[in-house]
Amino acid sequence: MTERYAAVVVGGGTAGLSAALVLGRARHRTLVVDAGEPRNAPAAHMQGYLSRDGMPPAEFLAVGREEIARYGVELVRDRVVEVERGENFAVVLAGGRTVRARRLVIATGLKDELPAVPGVAERFGRDVLHCPFCHGWEVRDQPFGVLASSPASVHQALIVSQWSKDVRFFLHTVAEEELSDQDLRRLAAAGVDVVPGEVAGLVVEDDRLTGVRLADRTTHARSMLFVGPRPVPQTGLLERLGAELQETPFGAYPVVDPTGLTTVPGVWAAGNAIGFAEQVVHAASGGYRAAAAIVGDLLMTDLDAAVQE
């Protein structure tokens, strides 16, 4: 027989676990389907989350899984491959299981597509970074490099200059003529050196980044390199459900109301599934809001049905 749940949460990261915690505490039978691919897996620590600053992401998620289990929430390591709309949602898992849910929370996040520079992917999350708010304090005052992926990378170079006064902005495949006069003036005012030329690779010694090598074989001594990954939203399920998406400079994300409700009745989204800039603390809040809205929605639906009867 098909198992029935009040809610199925797709994604067991911060947003998904936060939603599941609220749903479980509200006494709703809830299932979390987790593929085990959190965006921040390469990072050794997470920062900026009050009371959890510096906590390893894996430990944070492990604590979250323990907490939801106290309230009877089920968690399976699997992947949702299809969702069918009907009176309830039929959720098909890769492992062959099919369950039904009255409401859905999509917390599938996004993937970071890194620049195709040799060595970048191997060192991502260590001394190749993308978020100064996540890692800036820990690497402060070191020689920074910033790898341009578009003229918009100027913003990243300016932001990281708050954590180091030794910053070199490698234009890579961006021509200097593509930068505006205002960009160049701001970079100069921030003390950021602009380095033209394509980056060919990284210099690594004793498992530490020591430099950035250009195609002309010149090397710049750097101990940290900031890059701008291309975010790839994991919106496949939302698209198949018919959710409306909106284009942004960082990809297409679902149109949602303040609680995370998408344009598909009964389907909420939270975390990086709704935007590129959702940090861990935002994801936790978004999952909470979505779950609280679902609790109220289910209550009113059931009460209205009782009144009609």
Automatic annotation (TrEMBL):
- What would be one Pfam family of this protein? Pyr_redox_2
Q: What is this protein called?
A: NAD(P)/FAD-dependent oxidoreductase
Reactions catalysed, as given in the entry? [thioredoxin]-dithiol + NADP(+) = [thioredoxin]-disulfide + NADPH + H(+)
The cross-references to Gene3D superfamilies, in alphabetical order and at most eight, read:
FAD/NAD(P)-binding domain
Keywords carried by this UniProt record: Flavoprotein, Membrane, Oxidoreductase, Transmembrane, Transmembrane helix
The UniProt record lists the FAD/NAD(P)-binding domain at: 7-285
Source taxonomy lineage?
A: Bacteria, Bacillati, Actinomycetota, Actinomycetes, Kitasatosporales
Q: Which residues cross the membrane?
A: 6-24
